[in-house]
Amino acid sequence: MSGRGDNGGAHEPGDFHDPDRARPARSVLRGRGPLTVTLAALVPAVLVGWLIFQATGSPSNGSGAAGEPDGTPAPASTRPSASASGHSGASASPSSKGTRPGGSGATQGPLAGKVVVIDPGHNPSNHLHTTDINRQVDVGNARKECDTTGTATNSGYPEAEFTLDVARRLRTLLEKQGARVVLTQDGKRPWGPCVDERAQIGNKEHADAAISIHADGAPVGDRGFHVILPAPVHEGGADTRAITGPSRDLGEHVAGRFARVTGTAPSNYIGQGTGLDVRDDLGGLNLSEVPKVFIECGNMRDSKDAALIMSGAWRQKAAQGISEGMMSFLHG
Ligand SMILES: [Zn+2]
Question: Is residue 61 situated within a structural domain?
């Protein structure tokens, strides 16, 4: 949830909040003509994906991902932590394709030599460490809490479990393509990492692409996904000027494929139907030096979206859509 305070806190109807903390998020989209115009041009790209799905009932990439029974096992979470990898201390993947931990990834596959950093939003045990996660950290143009608990469905399925599940499925899909994949946390840390460290892990790994996975906690009736792009921020330790262009490209690819593979419509409450939003208040984006976006996969507080989010088959499609978007971006 980056639309509203990632602590799952209360929010004002119609207002959308901040993944880093419970305060109105600052979307730089609202009321900005030129950007809206640019994004208007993107509408087709994202909508096409969705319309193709609506028309054919299956992703146009013929992967057959859609509709696959939930037989696809969630990726093993007993993966040996790769702190040995030494890069950023995050958990990297000792791929079976002969990669050395900390090495440059598989030598085979379309993504051989590429490094992808996946940031599963929040942490399942953050709620047990409120003093640690409430500590303030610097995000360039502001100071914010280190991390938050995230939201949950009304039936109690935590966002932090959802993000880890999708992140692990995405890791498996990208490794199969030969990428070296690093998770900022793999459910083994007692809390966090803090939002600034989540960005730094991508920077230290010199990631070719990075993505932060979330799900929103918006009013009932607010539905659909949106991808958050970094705004140009040059303040304090933040300087996103070099990544806004490639991050937009990454975001367009991810939004288009996510819509196509999941059949989920772009958000009906953020981004004016484009499925895209631009923000300057997220620590995970402000401090990134590599192409990076956030994705809000749906609204956990809306029963229809929640039903999708709680389905393993839909989570596999979500991971498939994101991986296809990242693949088409990385192939440039
Ligand atoms: Zn979140």
Answer: no
| pLDDT (tens digit per residue) in 291-305 | 999 999 999 999 999
Quick check: helix, strand or coil at residue 323? helix
Residue whose C-alpha is closest to residue 121's, from 269, 328, 297: 297
Predicted confidence band of residue 37 (pLDDT cuts 50, 70, 90): very low
324 is catalytic: no
Catalytic residue among 175, 205, 289, 296: 296
Backbone angles phi, psi at 299, to 5 degrees: -105, 110
CA distance 78 to 69: 23
Query: Ligand 1 centre from 213 Cα, in Å?
Result: 7
| Cα 285 to averaged position of ligand 1 atoms, centre (Å) | 13
Whether residues 203 and 143 fall in one domain: yes
Q: Report the alpha-carbon distance of residue 182 to residue 210 in Å, rounded.
A: 9
The pLDDT of residue 171 is above 80: yes
Q: What is the CATH number of the domain that holds 212?
A: 3.40.630.40
143, part of any domain: yes
pLDDT tens digits, one per residue of 100-121: 444 455 668 999 999 999 999 9
Inside any domain, residue 197: yes
Residue 2 CA to ligand 1 center (angstroms) comes to 5
Q: What is the pTM of this model?
A: 0.76
1 is a domain residue: no
Domain encompassing residue 23? 19-56
Query: 10 alpha carbon to ligand 1 midpoint, in Å?
Result: 14
